[in-house]
UniProtKB/TrEMBL annotation:
The protein's name in its UniProt record: Homoserine O-acetyltransferase
Entry function: Transfers an acetyl group from acetyl-CoA to L-homoserine, forming acetyl-L-homoserine.
Gene Ontology CC entries for this record: cytoplasm
InterPro entries: Class_I_gatase-like, HST_MetA, MetA_family
SUPFAM superfamilies with a match to the protein in the record: Class I glutamine amidotransferase-like (SSF52317)
Organism whose genome encodes this protein: Prevotella lacticifex
Protein family per UniProt: Belongs to the MetA family.
Binding site for substrate: K163, S192, R249
Amino acid sequence: MPLRLPHQLPAINILKRENIFVMDEDRAHKQDIRPLRIVILNLMPLKITTETDLIRLLSNTPLQIDIMFMKLKSHTPKNTPIEHMMMFYKDFDEIARENYDGMIVTGAPVETMAFEDVEYWNEIVKIFDWARTHVQSTLYICWAAQAALYHFYGIPKYLLDRKMFGIFPTRPLRPKLPIFRGFDNVFYMPQSRHSEVRSHDIKKVKELSIIAESPESGVSMVMARGGREFFITGHLEYAPETLDKEYKRDAGIRDDVGIPLHYYVDDDPKKGFHIFWRAHANLLFQNWINYYVYQKTPYDLSKIK
C-alpha cells in the first residue's frame, strides 16, 4: 500500500525514481480506507532531506499511512525555503486538537546548548506533553531523544570532547521485543552527536528500559510506557551519503570532529563508504509501525489516552 503525502511534496518525485509507491492526497481521498496518521516534527536543518529519509523508511509497510509535517512557531528555519514550510507544514496550534497513531520527532543541531536555553524549549515540551495523550506511539531521535528523556524523566546529557561520529555495532538487549523482530544479534547504527546520555542515570528510573547498547557509542535505544515511547540516540534514518556530507562540511573547520568511524573503506574518504545499516533501519521502522502503532492504536483515535 502507498504512503499518502501532501500534493507536490518534493520527496514524491525522488521516491518514485526509487520505485517506492507514493500517492498524493487527491488520489488517496478516493480510497475508502482508514489510514494510519503519522505526524513528523522535523527539527533538522535540511528539512527536505530529512523528509525524504523518513518517508523512504515509512514506505516499507503494506499499510496506508497519512503523513503530516509539523513546525514550530518559535523557530524559523534558515536552510529551507519559507514557501516549502508554508505549503507542507502546520503549526502545533493547528493540530493540537487532533490525535495521531504515531509521531516522530527528529534531532536538532542544538545539542551543545542547555535544554532550557534552546529558543523553542517551552514550545517543544508542550508538544512532548501533548503527544502523551494524543499519540499512540512516539519515536524520539537523537537530540529529541535526549530532550524527551530529560523532560519526562530528568535524565541529564553530557557533552563529549569529540563528536560521536560513525557507524557503530549495536546489540539488542531485549531481542524478543517486537521492535527487534527479525534482527540479528548485532546491528549497526549511525551516530552523529556531540553529547550523550549514560546508562547509570537511565537505570535509576524504573519506567525506563535500555533495549539496545553499543560498546563504543553507549546507550542506543531506550523504551518507556510499553513501547508508547522510544528514544533512539542515533540516526538509522540516515541515507548512505549523509555522514560523508557531514564530514566534508566540518573537515578543517572543527577540531572536535574526526573521520566517521567504521564508515569509509579503509578509513579513507577517497575509497567510498560502507552501507550496512539500511536493512535493519527498514526493519525497525516496519516493526514500529506494525507492532506499536497499527496493532495498538484504536480505530477511533479520540480514544487514545
